[in-house]
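user: can you give me the structure for this one chain? tokens are fine.
assistant: on it. calling the predictor now.
[tool input]
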Amino acid sequence: MIRFGVAMPEQLLEEFDSWLESSGFANRSLALRHLVRQYISAKSWEQDDKVSVCGTITMLYDHHSNDLTAELTAIQHDFGGQIICTTHVHITHELCLETIVVKGSVGQLKTLEEALTALKGIQSVNIAVFKLLD
């Protein structure tokens, strides 16, 4: 570990400490490491298609939509190298929630997300990724 100092306005530090306390972090160092990792993951998603990431894609969809289940299966087979596993649950008689655990390059996962989002019957797609640190 490397120690360094951080200077910030008093009001910002008070707000940070308040958030830290409500979030359950034991100290500022743990909270800062957490925030830096989140920021780096988000930036890698925005800026570099070759960075290796892992995460989840969560979808909400109407399984009664024409051929949607077959199209989802076909796309998931096309991305078999990036998909680790899926979990499918029935929310209502019409709605399903599916979470896909993924690992691959940002570019591969963006392409997968775009393919899923474009399907008729998909109501929502949310992706959360974490940069794999060397």
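assistant: here you go. The chain has four helices and four strands. Residues 28-47 form the longest helix (20 residues).
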